[in-house]
Automatic annotation (TrEMBL):
Annotated transmembrane regions: none
Organism of derivation: Denitrobaculum tricleocarpae
Keywords: DNA-binding, Transcription, Transcription regulation
Lineage: superkingdom: Bacteria
Protein name: MarR family transcriptional regulator
Biological process annotations from GO: response to stress
InterPro entries in the cross-refs: HTH_MarR-typ, MarR/SlyA-like, Tscrpt_reg_MarR-type_CS, WH-like_DNA-bd_sf, WH_DNA-bd_sf
Pfam families given in the database record: MarR
Length: 97
């Protein structure tokens, strides 16, 4: 998706981009279980998408100390920068149309 706008931004699937937007536009805390429920996706599908986003350092996961069965998903600076750059590129493309 992002490659259509700018070659140096990582290309994300719609699922990955949707998860990223959910994490950055809704108030924390975010859990794998909660994201799956909110987005009507399976937990394994969420986990695979989070794997890619974590590899890109757009988010990080850690065990919830209050409920060790739960995994918290946290925002990162790199994820914020990516979304800002993506929004700027999309806005620039829209103005050119």
């Amino acid at each position: 998706m992002a490659t259509a706008l700018r070659k140096d931004l990582p290309d994300l699937t719609w699922r990955q981009f949707t998860l990223l937007l959910q994490i950055y536009t809704s108030p924390p805390p975010h859990t794998v279980r909660g994201l799956a429920k909110d987005l009507k996706m399976s937990k394994p599908a969420v986990t695979r998408a989070l794997d890619r986003l974590e590899k890109l350092e757009f988010l990080r996961r850690k065990i919830d100390e209050n409920d060790r069965r739960s995994i918290l998903v946290q925002r990162t600076v790199a994820g914020s920068v990516f979304l800002r750059e993506f929004a700027d590129m999309a806005s620039g493309q829209a103005k050119e149309l």
